[in-house]
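URGENT: need a sanity check before tomorrow's submission.

F., can you look over the Aspartate/glutamate leucyltransferase record below? I want to be sure the sequence and structure line up before it goes out.
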Amino acid sequence: MTEHFPSKIGLSQQFSCSYLPQQNEQLLVILDPSCYTPARFEALLELGFRRSGDQIYRPHCPKCSACQSVRIPAKLFTPSKSQKRKFKKITGDFSFSVSHKEREEYYPLYEKYISLRHSDGSMYPPNKLQYESFLFCQWLPISFIELWHHDTLIAVAVTDTMPNALSAIYTFFDPEYENYSLGNVMIMAQIEHAKKLDKEFVYLGYQIDSCKKMRYKAQFLPAQRFVNDVWVEQDPP
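Structure tokens as predicted:
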């Protein structure tokens, strides 16, 4: 699995790219049911794949190769001075917790986040079916890393768990707490969770350097990128 693709793979139709204007997107989709287990999915993560809902996919665009998978060697990660300051702000009245099942507070927070932060994106307007079909998965254990302010839930990082890695699926948070850099804070929380579980990697999904919304991922070092089917060390920005 780490050297060869599965034999049963489909190719989607082309559709408008969600990240790069004027570009079309196309996906390789895993059709082999035996791949839909935590261990085999982890092998596919090593080949640049990812999941959305129950489906495993990888970009296979006809005229673009901008998407590059990024992963953090969790045990080697040391936060920068800036990241330490951001994490230090989440003290006192703030607390982290980890849940392994969905709470009723999640969807209202997700709906608020999409409506106020991504009203120009493909996920707007949010709805419950879209939320469930995007984030949840029937064949994989999911952890929800939560950030609370007193008794108010303000951020959730949806995180997949594999034998040797975690995969960051999506983080949503209360836009009223935007000045706390919660996107960055929740990545650091996922890395710390990986260390506690003795996992080797945290996969951050795809990086597109020309997409402003993704540039924050380049601040997490050391990191590796999947370039031309090989994992290489990422250079500092």
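My own read: The CA atoms of residues 100 and 143 lie 5 Å apart. Helices lie at 38-45, 81-89, 106-117, 128-135, 182-196. If you see anything odd, call me.
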